[in-house]
C-alpha cells in the first residue's frame, strides 16, 4: 500500500479548472443546478458528498430532482448485477431530459464504469452521456466537466494503475449530524467473488493527520455519529511511509474531546487483531458495535472464496469480541448459493448463525461478477435452491434477532435521533449505540442524543418512550 499525493502542479490545475467551470457555468449571473443520484455502499455515499462539494465550489446548487438540472451525475455500484441494471435503467430515463435540453451535461461515475465493458457500453449505447470516470478519478471531475462545457469530445476514463489520494476536494455533507470519513481506498484481498479490487484499485491510505483533522473538525461542528470507512480498515497504513496502523488511528480519533460516537467499517476477519478489540473496549467514543463479515460457515466455501481464515479463526475472534466488549452488537454478511455450495456447506452456515447469535445479518444470494475468479467456477447453485436456502437462513436469523432484541425490554438506553420515519411521520427514528433501529412516538429534533426506555421489541426494530434529553 502506498500513500500517493497529487503534485503541486496537479493541485494548481484542479483549482484552475474549478474556477474556469464557475465562470462558464455561471455566465449571465445564473446559478445552475446539479442533481446527484447515488447507488451502492457508504463509500459511494462519501464519494457523492465529495462530488457535491466540488459541484458547489464550481458554482452549482444541489437539487433533489433531475428535471431542470444543468448537470446530472450518476454514481454507480458494481457489487451485484442488479445494482448495475438499476443504474443503467436510471441513466436511460435521462435520455428525454437531454433531448429536451441538449445543454444538459450527464456524467456517470463510480464502480460500474471502472469496468472497461461498462464504459464501452455507455459510450456505444448511451450517446447522451457526456463523460464517465471511476472512483479513483474524483479529483478530475472539474477537468472533465470543463472540457465538455467547452465543446470537447465525450470521454470515458478507466482507472489509472497508481491512483492518487487527493486531499483537496471539498465535501458537502448529506447530514448535519452523521458523517462518513474515508480513511483509505481500494482493496488488496481479492476475494474470489468480489469486483471491488478491480474497480477501486490497490489499497491507498490517507495521512493520519488529515483523517484526525477531519474528525476533529466534524466534532467541532456538532457531528454526533462519525464512521471511518475503508474496504478493509484493518489494512490502514500498511506499507505507507507513516507509522500508524488502524488501531492507533482509532485511538487517536477516540482521544478527541466531545460528545460523539465513532464507528468503522469494514473490518476483515483475517486482520481483526486483539489490539483493535482492546481499543474498542477501552474507548471513550468508539461504539460497542462490530461488523465482522463471515460470508459462510463452511471452511470449504471460505477457501473457495479466498477469505484467508477458517471458521475456527473467525469464531475465536468473535469470542474475544464478546469477552472483552460486553454487550457489543455484532453483525455479519452472509453469501448464500456460492458456486459449489452443498447442502452440508449451507448447514455449516446455519450452525454458525446458531453458535454466533449475531444481532443482525445482511444476507445476499451470490451474484456472479464478470472478471472475478468465482464467475468461472463450476457447481452453480440453481436459483430455486438458492432462494430456498435464503428463506431458511432468514427464518433462523429472524428468531435469533428477535430473541436478542427482547433482552432490551425495560432497559433505559441512550440513542441518537435520526428524524421522522418516511412511512409514519408520527414516529421518530433513532439508532442505538450498536446501530439498532428504535422508534419513539414522540417528536424530537434529529441529531440529538436522548435517553429512552424500551417498551417493546421485534426482530428488526425496538420501540421506546422518551425518558430524558441528554
Concise account of the structure shown:
The chain is built from 14 helices and 19 strands. The chain is about 35% helix and about 20% strand.
Structural class: alpha/beta
Shape, principal axes of CA atoms: globular
Q: With helices defined by DSSP (H or I, 4 residues minimum), what is the helix count?
A: 14
Mean pLDDT: 95
Query: What's the CATH H-level homologous superfamily of the largest domain?
Result: Methylthiotransferase, N-terminal domain
Weakly predicted, low-confidence segments? none
Distance between the termini: 42 Å
CATH class group of the largest domain? Alpha Beta
Count of distinct structural domains = 4
Per the CATH scheme, the topology name of the largest domain is Rossmann fold
Helical coverage, percent range: 25-40%
Q: In the CATH hierarchy, what is the architecture of the largest domain at level 2?
A: 3-Layer(aba) Sandwich
Strand order of the largest sheet: 2-1-3-4-5-6
Number of strands: 19
Description of the molecule:
With 470 residues, this protein is of the alpha/beta class. It has four domains: 8-156, Methylthiotransferase, N-terminal domain (Rossmann fold, 3-Layer(aba) Sandwich), CATH 3.40.50; 175-287, Transcription Regulator spoIIAA, CATH 3.30.750; 298-406, Transcription Regulator spoIIAA, CATH 3.30.750; 412-469, Nucleic acid-binding proteins (OB fold (Dihydrolipoamide Acetyltransferase, E2P)), CATH 2.40.50.140. 35% of the residues lie in helices and 20% in strands. The chain has 14 helices and 19 strands. It has helices spanning 8-25, 42-57, 81-93, 95-100, 116-125, 141-149, 196-200, 208-220, 246-254, 274-281, 299-305, 311-324, 343-356, 383-406, and strands at residues 33-38, 61-62, 71-76, 105-110, 131-133, 155-156, 178-182, 184-185, 204-205, 225-229, 261-265, 289-291, 329-336, 360-365, 412-420, 428-432, 437-440, 449-457, 462-469. Strand 13, helix 13 (343-356) and strand 14 (360-365) form a beta-alpha-beta unit. Helix 9 (246-254) packs parallel to helix 10 (274-281). The longest helix is centred in the last third of the chain and has 24 residues, at 383-406. The model has no long low-confidence stretch (mean pLDDT 95).
Amino acid at each position: 500500500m502506498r500513500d500517493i499525493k497529487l503534485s503541486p502542479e496537479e493541485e494548481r490545475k484542479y483549482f484552475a479548472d474549478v474556477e474556469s467551470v464557475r465562470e462558464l457555468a455561471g455566465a449571465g449571473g445564473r446559478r445552475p443546478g446539479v442533481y446527484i443520484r447515488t447507488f451502492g455502499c457508504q463509500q459511494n455515499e462519501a464519494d457523492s458528498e465529495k462530488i457535491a462539494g466540488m459541484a458547489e465550489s464550481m458554482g452549482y446548487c444541489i437539487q433533489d430532482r433531475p428535471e431542470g438540472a444543468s448537470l446530472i451525475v450518476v454514481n454507480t455500484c458494481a457489487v451485484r448485477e442488479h445494482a448495475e441494471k438499476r443504474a443503467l435503467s436510471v441513466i436511460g430515463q435521462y435520455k428525454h431530459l437531454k433531448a429536451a435540453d441538449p445543454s444538459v451535461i450527464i456524467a456517470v461515475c463510480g464502480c460500474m464504469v471502472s469496468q472497461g465493458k461498462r464504459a464501452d457500453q455507455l459510450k456505444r449505447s448511451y450517446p447522451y452521456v457526456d463523460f464517465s470516470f471511476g472512483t479513483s478519478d474524483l479529483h478530475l471531475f472539474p477537468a472533465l466537466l470543463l472540457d465538455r462545457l467547452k465543446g470537447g469530445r465525450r470521454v470515458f476514463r478507466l482507472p489509472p494503475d497508481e491512483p492518487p489520494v487527493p486531499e483537496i476536494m471539498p465535501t458537502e455533507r448529506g447530514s448535519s449530524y452523521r458523517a462518513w470519513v474515508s480513511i483509505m481506498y481500494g482493496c488488496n484481498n481479492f476475494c474470489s467473488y468480489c469486483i471491488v479490487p478491480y474497480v477501486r484499485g490497490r489499497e491507498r491510505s490517507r495521512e493520519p493527520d488529515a483523517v484526525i483533522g477531519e474528525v476533529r473538525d466534524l466534532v467541532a461542528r456538532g457531528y454526533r455519529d462519525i464512521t471511518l470507512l475503508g474496504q478493509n480498515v484493518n489494512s490502514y497504513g500498511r506499507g505507507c511511509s507513516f507509522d500508524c496502523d488502524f488501531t492507533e488511528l482509532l485511538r487517536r480519533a477516540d482521544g478527541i474531546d466531545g460528545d460523539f460516537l465513532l464507528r468503522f467499517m469494514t473490518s476483515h476477519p483475517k486482520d481483526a487483531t486483539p489490539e483493535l478489540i482492546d481499543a474498542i473496549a477501552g474507548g471513550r467514543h468508539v461504539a460497542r458495535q462490530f461488523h465482522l463479515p463471515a460470508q459462510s460457515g463452511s471452511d470449504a466455501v471460505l477457501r473457495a472464496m479466498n477469505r484467508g481464515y477458517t471458521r475456527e479463526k473467525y469464531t475465536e475472534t468473535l469470542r474475544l469480541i464478546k469477552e472483552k466488549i460486553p454487550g457489543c452488537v455484532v453483525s455479519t454478511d452472509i453469501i448464500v448459493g456460492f458456486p459449489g455450495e452443498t447442502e452440508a456447506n449451507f448447514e455449516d452456515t446455519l450452525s454458525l448463525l446458531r453458535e454466533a447469535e449475531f444481532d443482525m445479518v445482511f444476507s445476499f444470494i451470490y451474484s456472479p461478477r464478470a472478471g472475478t475468479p468465482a464467475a468461472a467456477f463450476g457447481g452453480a447453485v440453481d436459483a430455486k435452491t438458492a432462494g430456498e436456502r435464503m428463506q431458511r437462513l432468514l427464518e433462523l436469523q429472524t428468531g435469533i434477532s428477535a430473541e436478542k432484541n427482547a433482552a432490551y425490554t425495560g432497559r433505559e438506553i441512550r440513542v441518537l435521533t435520526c428524524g421522522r420515519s418516511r412511512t409514519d411521520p408520527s414516529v421518530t427514528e433513532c439508532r442505538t449505540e450498536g446501530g439498532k433501529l428504535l422508534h419513539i412516538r414522540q417528536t424530537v429534533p434529529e441529531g440529538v442524543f436522548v435517553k429512552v426506555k424500551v417498551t417493546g421489541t421485534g426482530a428488526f426494530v425496538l420501540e421506546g418512550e422518551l425518558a430524558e434529553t441528554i
